[in-house]
Amino acid sequence: xRKMNIKQLLLPAVCSLLLLPLQSCDDDADKQAQAEYMKEQxxxxxxxxxxxNASILCYQSLLSGEIPVGITPIETGYKVELSGGNAYNIxxxxxxxxxxxxxxxxxxxxWAYSFDGSNYLDFTDPSGKTLNAYSxxxxxxxxRSPQLQIxxxxxxxxxxxxxxxxxxLSDTSRSRIAAFCGKGAGVSSLFSDIVYNETxxxxxxxxxxxxxxxxxxxxSNFYLKVKGSEAEDGLTFFLNEERKFLVETSDVVRxxxxxxxxxxxTLKDEVLSIKAPASVATKKTQPINxxxxxxxxxxxxxxxxxxxxxxxxxxxxxxxxxxxxxxIAPPEMEELKARGYEVINVCDFGATxxxxxxxxxxxxxxxxxxxxxxxxxxxxxxxxxxxxxxPSYTLRLHSNNPVxxxxxxxEGEYILQDASEVNHTIAxxxxxxxxxxxxRNKTVIRMDARNKKTDNKKEWxxxxxxxxxxxxxxxxxxxxxxxAAKGSFEIAVSNTTNIHVGDWVCLYALNNDxxxxxxxxxPHPLSDLDDKANIKLEGANVxxxxxxxxxxxxxxxxxxxxxxxxxAKYNWKIxxxxxxxxxxxxxxxxxxxxxxxxxxxxxxxxxxxxxxDYKLIDFSRLTNSWMRRVNFVxxxxxxxxxxxxxxxxxxxxxxxxxxxxxxxxxxxxxxxIGKVYDHSSGYRIxxxxxxxxxxxxxxxxxxxxxxxxxxxxxxxxxxWGDDACYEAHASQPRATLIxxxxxxxIPSRQGGDRYEVPNHLGDxxxxxxxxxxxxxxxxxxxxxxxxxxxxxxxxxxxxVIVGFHGASINFAxxxxxxxxxxxxxxSQGSRVEPYSLYEAQLRRRLGYVPAWLTAxx
Length: 857
Prior knowledge:
There is one protein chain. The chain is mainly beta. It contains nine helices and 56 strands. Helices cover 11% and strands 34% of the residues. Keywords: Signal.
């Protein structure tokens, strides 16, 4: 006997009930099943009926003289906006697996229907009057056009008064017509074909029933366009956020704005200002409607969907990370030259490539030749040469004014440190300077001799060869006097006397109030931390750098969202932030001589330090600066970006012998670290009792990541090694996005001192992580634990994990206590869309993904 599915079994029974409504049945279970099936069928076809009705209303309106004033392609066809102010989504009809009518206009001009495609009946109103499609009565289309519905019993009904009254659709014998007793001649639209010729300004509609074709002229010069609002799924706003958009209009004589409650929307001089509510709305996604009127009294409604995020949302806004908030790429050499930058070639000052002699003095002389640069005498660094360590010295080259200079290294290898120059750092304290090579595979900057530890008790204490930095620290400007939600842009302060638009400031807190500290590590209790933990003794420390865009009525408005909620009772401050801007390093390779056999926090066989021997460059207190198209070979550390804001480090490769760390955001705000390929080679760091094995793709011990009070960092499209993990080096980093990265997920590689944990505080977002290798600590019971209260080191506040895939991993739900280990886990085992959260948030904010980021994929 042939098997039948439930639909095949139920359909004849349901249809018989529809045709013979008085038939009884003793089997209540069968009746219930039939009723449930009917309910599901009606619901399933509701959208299909709506599309059919929309096509009828649209066609009726066009026949009545309304003119298309806007045509927008959509997935199912077109959105047609008409001059009367209504809009309809229409498409070509699709076949329907139900008893749908075929609808047409008869020779007499009446709306008519047929279920077999040949015999037509006129639609009539309750009084029996036919519905003429060409009636000139001054009445809306909805009140003279047939609109269909399937009732709860599965019968067709019609209304011709906008839904006030309904009558059953009947056949020639005046019997009701069931919707699910076969397949009718009709489809989901009045039309079989829809063509919009934008060049000709013409909309062509072909009727399904008789293949009749009608053309309608389209008005294309009546519009209002909000630039930058083309993002998918609407515009996202944080509480109290205000954003401005340029507006382009044509033939608009009047604009009326309908905004949701709490939203402030104004349009003046082609500038649209949208300000979000200060508190959470009940409905988070709402429309802002712009009703525009033309000189001919046509109307259109332009809708912007806006979404309000509050401080309970799980995904912070990372879209402001990077150089110039990620909106543009740093300028290339030709553009800088056009701006007046001078190019200085180090070879003109005595540098000779490939001669195996130091080029340090030539480099120093080239910098010193810049107008306004002063070379200071070399001085001994403070707190060096302790515990038997070596002293270190710094040679400082400084300018009070922007130098507007490119220091150029032609193709070849150049030595910036030999054995006679150990522990002698070069510090450049200036802005508008770029150090540039002829290409990452052409120009090599070598550090041929390792630096020595300045404190023998600290394996990482060796100095860096080259620093670009501002020496001055933070100082108080004002107290914070009002609260501010996470994601907001505005803060109330005690005075604004010395704060101006364009200034960079630091939103700062350091407070050991137990309630304040408890917020930072929640939901875990303070008792889980050692009494010597810095966050308990010194307090929670928040460092958030911002540029001021407005100063008014005792309030500052920032260009970027605040990444942690602010409560004035915890003594928040606004601090002066001295810094340099427009510093770049690009198109070269930094090469050290890190030895094989890396061991964490251990000495090398020759008495050096695996952690710190070869650190070639650091950046400190810089804004809108960059490092790109740079390689690192056999280095202890690639680069640290310290106390900086909106720095971009991307298109970087790390190879050679394995070292301590890669590229990190250290105490910085909104650093972008992207497209780093870290494949240095070395021995896998074994667990107790295991043998070390050589790995060609081990990677730096700590992959790219964050340390100290970093905030808003984006680690994007980074590939680290197979014996590593992202870095979260404790000392209170917050709000980090690990975005579409690839590499191992090995515990203990995040890093951090036992008294500086947690490794990471709130808002760690791991998005579409592709794991190449995973691992667990021996006491974790074959699961990955974020917060191990039995360990002095492994402590991360519950993260959000979305789309984790690749090598299998089991994230613990709880461990030792009942406190949850994860804030949220979604789609584990398979990647999600959007593939990149940073890209998606940029698209939402800007309406597009910037070309520089697209080029990196």
